[in-house]
Amino acid sequence: MFDNVGELHHRGSDLCSAAPYVGGQLMPAPSFISPHAEALFQKLSTRTARTAVIGLGYVGLPLAVEFGNAGFSVVGIDLDQNKCEAINAGTSYIADVPGASVSSLVDAGRLRAVPNLEAADSLDTINICVPTPLRKTRDPDMTYVLSAAQLVKEHLQPGMLVVLESTTYPGTTDEIVRNILEETGLRAGLDFFLAFSPERVDPGNVKWNTKNVPKVVGGLTSDCSALAAELYGASIDRVVQVSSPRAAEMVKLLENTFRAINIGLVNEMALMCDRIGIDVWEVIEAAATKPFGFMPFYPGPGLGGHCIPIDPFYLSWKVKEVGFEARFIELAGHVNASMPRYVVDKIADALNEQGKSIKGANILVMGIAYKPNVDDVRESPALDVITLLVKKGADVIYHDPFVPHVDAEHSVLGRRMDSVPYSRETVAAADCVVVATDHQAFDYVELVQAARVIVDTRNAVKVSAPNVFKLGAPNPGA
Ligand code: SAJ
């Protein structure tokens, strides 16, 4: 059903899809330009299309499961043999995907995983859900997208639909991916179909998931859009069509740039509040009572994760090509990147109150995941804080129930780090305890009681006390 132009509601579970509605009026099936579109549309609307998802991570696996639940057969493709084996054994390695969801589809013969497309028989649709990280030089690393596009090119057949989901800069789909696929001699929009649809997976979010988060879709042509909307409309509650792949690519970048910049703003507010003796947390809480025109963001030790610190720099990198400087993105990046150092200064203040220096101090970091209640340490600011502390001669240990150890690759010490068991004694033995990630599992009351001094970077310790130094607030007794 169309809510308004371009919105297509879920077509329900019947195998013969009802044509969409506009304002309650039954709409005829789309009229297509390409001679291949009608056949694919029928396969999609009857769920007989053979679908594939390349990349079975926190985006690809839930998507594959939703395609399977809608009735499609799904081939998952992932280079990681362990992932393929886990799926084919009917188990899930993604916390948000129940094992039963995988096993029921595998048992029904609607889901299987292979390490490459060779093993996949002919397909009708392929969704690409591979990482798009940043290089050390802060420019886009398109390695995974390029190799996935090459893989698709080797198996591209007339009538296939290819959708890119990986977050990327505008122009990736209709330039990079399209050019690779057209090396086959097939023409995008006529012989095969091409679209972009941004992933909106929020790991650990119990309310919003792949099925109920609206899915934005931008096709190269109207046929591409209609076919991609049909694929997603069969599996996801709401599809929102935009005019092009570039628009869809930009939607995602606006969403996450909005977030990164507002976090940068509130981090700068925290620095200001600390400097002029105001508690930024009290200010935000009061501002958040405004029922319109305000949206609370919260300061922290920096910006972690695989989305927010990275996505905006795909945009700023792209617009540099046309001589445009994305000043908000760059500035927010500087502010957010400065937060770990500010936290270390706060730790120095806290130790100083005890006549101690960072050098030689025993410091316990509570929580090193990039955000509460997840096990992911990618770009985690806690690791930046630990790096700075170690460089200043501190002896740092951490406790994080979600992160039993950090391998040498992510570890700032160049060696594996293990989470120490939590105990009141461990807390009491530290010269300073740093709350870097506010997991719900922590007992903050006990922390305040047991710790000599705490640096709280998340306003997790909801009490003021002489031994609590808070990010974004004046030091106790200041
Ligand atoms: N952070 C703050 N202050 C805030 C919010 C977050 O410092 O007010 C920090 C977090 O501690 C973390 C980093 O920013 O280190 C990123 O946090 P996040 O809440 O944005 O979590 P992510 O990285 O998992 O972002 C995802 C994104 N989802 C997608 O890209 C599909 C983002 O668009 C979502 O808005 C976000 O989840 C969410 O809302 O949870």
TrEMBL record:
Give the signal peptide as a residue range, or say none if absent.
none
Q: UDP-glucose/GDP-mannose dehydrogenase C-terminal domain: from which residue to which, for each copy?
A: 364-463
Which GO biological-process labels does this protein carry? polysaccharide biosynthetic process
Q: Which InterPro entries match?
A: 6-PGluconate_DH-like_C_sf (IPR008927), NAD(P)-bd_dom_sf (IPR036291), UDP-Glc/GDP-Man (IPR017476), UDP-Glc/GDP-Man_DH_C (IPR014027), UDP-Glc/GDP-Man_DH_C_sf (IPR036220), UDP-Glc/GDP-Man_DH_dimer (IPR014026), UDP-Glc/GDP-Man_DH_N (IPR001732), UDP_ManNAc/GlcNAc_DH (IPR028359)
Question: Entry's SUPFAM superfamilies?
Answer: 6-phosphogluconate dehydrogenase C-terminal domain-like, NAD(P)-binding Rossmann-fold domains, UDP-glucose/GDP-mannose dehydrogenase C-terminal domain
Write the record's keywords in alphabetical order, separated by commas.
NAD, Oxidoreductase
GO MF, one example: oxidoreductase activity, acting on the CH-CH group of donors, NAD or NADP as acceptor
Source taxon at top rank = Bacteria
What family, per the record? Belongs to the UDP-glucose/GDP-mannose dehydrogenase family.
Looking up PANTHER family in the UniProt record yields: UDP-N-ACETYL-D-MANNOSAMINE DEHYDROGENASE
Record-given protein name:
Nucleotide sugar dehydrogenase
